[in-house]
Amino acid sequence: MTYQILDGQVIIIEFTSRQRLIIDLVKKNQPITSSQLAERLNVSRAAIRPDLSVLTMSGVLEAKPKMGYFYKSSAIFDVIKSIKVKDIKSQPVIVSEDTTVYDTIIRLFLEDTGTIYVENNGFLSGVVSRKDFIKIAVGNTEVKKLPVGMIMSRMPKIIFTTDEESVLEAAEKIILQEIDSIPVVEVIKGTDGKQELKVTGKVSKTTLTKLLYELGTGMRVLNENG
């Protein structure tokens, strides 16, 4: 067995008995050629070609020209390094700057989120969190009239990530900034040369915790089944 990320989910891949045997042979004899593997298994090279394709495509084995096959570690750290933000990002909650604080609070609770992203003309302009709402509520401000744009944290102070960044990079930003989530953005260059940020998702502590749980569960299954 091994596991991969597909559409944000950890997928367990079940190997056949021959594929597991090939993995064991490569581990003990690497580098080893396909001819040598076929001889050890008492089959033809053509017979194990599909097995080798599956094992290399799944990242368990690595084929090096003129050398043979090597076993690639499936340690959880290596897996996490390969996961991109686009693989795990979730749906963001977005409002416009002129939305009232009251209506934004309603969205916060209806969507069960800790952070709401604010846009101006379709691009990221600010972020507002539960802490911001608590501060404004304590001040007894008229939240039904005040626009959320008046209390949000504005660009360029907002920390963000992109689809192609690794999960480790996104997690580091969340930890260092001591925030609950960061927006995932697409960087768009306007006609005036200015860069604008289009929100396409978010990565939160909850997202990362779910990923850690799924990877841990996958690793446990691997260990239990050899």
Q: What structural class results from the helix and strand content?
A: alpha+beta
Any guess at the CATH architecture of the largest domain?
Roll
Percent in helix: 40-55%
* Overall pLDDT confidence: 85
Could you tell me the CATH topology label of the largest domain.
CBS-domain
CATH superfamily assignment of the largest domain?
CBS-domain
Radius of gyration: 24 Å
Describe the largest sheet: 4 strands, mixed
Give the number of helices: 9
Record field, number of beta strands: 10
Shape: elongated
Low-pLDDT runs of 5+ residues are none
What is the terminal-to-terminal distance? Answer: 8 Å
- Cross-sheet strand order for the largest sheet: 5-6-7-8
Query: What is the ordering of alpha helices and beta strands?
Result: EEHHHEEHHEHEEHEHEEH
How would you describe this structure in keywords?
Arc Repressor Mutant, subunit A; 226 residues; 9 helices; two-stranded antiparallel sheet; 2 domains; CBS-domain; alpha+beta
Describe this structure in words.
With 226 residues, this protein is α+β, with helices and mostly antiparallel strands. It folds into two domains: 2-74, Arc Repressor Mutant, subunit A; 85-205, Roll (CBS-domain), CATH 3.10.580.10. Helices cover 42% and strands 24% of the residues. It contains nine helices and ten strands. The strands form four sheets. The protein has a four-stranded mixed sheet. It has a two-stranded antiparallel sheet with strand order 1-2. Helix 2 (34-41) packs across helix 3 (45-57). The chain is elongated and about 80 Å long. The chain starts with a strand and ends with a helix. The model has no long low-confidence stretch (mean pLDDT 85).
